[in-house]
Design goal:
The complex is a heterodimer of chains A (110) and B (114). Chain A has 110 residues and is mainly beta. Helix content of chain A is 0%, strand content 48%. In chain A, strand 7 (64-69) and strand 8 form a beta hairpin. Chain B has strands spanning 3-7, 10-12, 18-25, 34-39, 45-51, 58-60, 68-73, 78-83, 92-98, 103-104, 108-112. Chain B has 114 residues and is an all-beta fold. Helix content of chain B is 0%, strand content 51%. The N and C termini of chain B lie far apart (40 Å). Classes of the chains: A mainly beta (110), B mainly beta (114). Chains A and B meet through strand 4, strand 5, strand 9 and strand 10 of A and strand 5 and strand 10 of B.
Chain lengths: 110, 114
């Protein structure tokens, strides 16, 4: 069974740039996997930042961007702010038609 | 403004059944695939199921196959998740989600316990 992999944790300085990645335990991520990136703060419903690999949801600042880097999907946050401190989940569309979340990355801004 | 509002959560005994509903507004519901996602207490997000625009295609995560049925009523702008043979590990907040557009409901808590 293919597992979606994410860094368990990451830290970034305020104003800095960070790239979170989303890979597969076997194989490469491509645009056909339609990567989705969600942000969640404790006690809140998730919020989708990016879908379709690189499409920003309405109202999402342009400092959040999605891409494919090498064999992984990537979420880049440029000019990190304190309220970006959250859990970030990626979601991929498997060939079978089901979707699978990664385990999430806990981002610390300090 | 897009809104997704779930209802139907609650406490149910192991082996019991529950049906969640999600009413959509602010977009043409019948044009979009819809998804259910859940989150167990203290855990990450888990994709549960999805359904295409006319309800003819449905997919499920392996852990719920045979116990859960996703459906929709486009005339009522509503999405459903019928859950049978519930187990303790089905305890979670269940979210309705429109992937294209990135919209989520506030979630419905399902607790399976005796």
């Amino acid at each position: 069974q293919t597992v979606v992999t994410q860094e368990p944790s990451f830290s970034v300085s305020p104003g800095g740039t960070v790239t979170l990645t989303c890979g597969l335990s076997s194989g490469s991520v491509s645009t056909t996997d339609n990567a989705v990136w969600c942000q969640q703060t404790p006690g809140q419903a998730p919020r989708t930042l990016i879908y379709g690999t690189n499409v920003r949801s309405s109202g999402v600042p342009d400092r959040f961007s999605g891409s494919i880097l090498g064999n992984k999907a990537a979420l880049t946050i440029t000019g990190a702010q304190a309220d970006d401190e959250s859990d970030y989940y990626c979601l991929l569309n498997m060939r079978s038609g089901i979707w699978v979340f990664g385990g999430g990355t806990k981002l610390t801004v300090l | 403004e897009v809104q997704l509002v779930e209802s139907g959560g609650g406490l149910v005994q192991p082996g019991g059944s529950l049906t969640l509903s999600c009413v959509a507004s602010g977009f043409t519901f019948s044009n979009f695939w819809m998804h259910w996602v859940r989150q167990a207490p203290g855990k990450g997000l888990e994709w549960v199921a999805n359904i295409n625009q006319d309800g003819s295609q449905k997919k499920y995560v392996d852990s719920v196959k045979g116990r859960v049925t996703i459906s929709r009523d486009n005339a009522k702008n509503s999405l459903y998740l019928q859950m049978d043979s519930l187990r303790a590990d089905d305890t979670a907040i269940y979210y309705c989600m429109r992937l294209t557009g990135g919209d989520w409901g506030h979630g419905a808590l399902v607790t399976v316990s005796s």
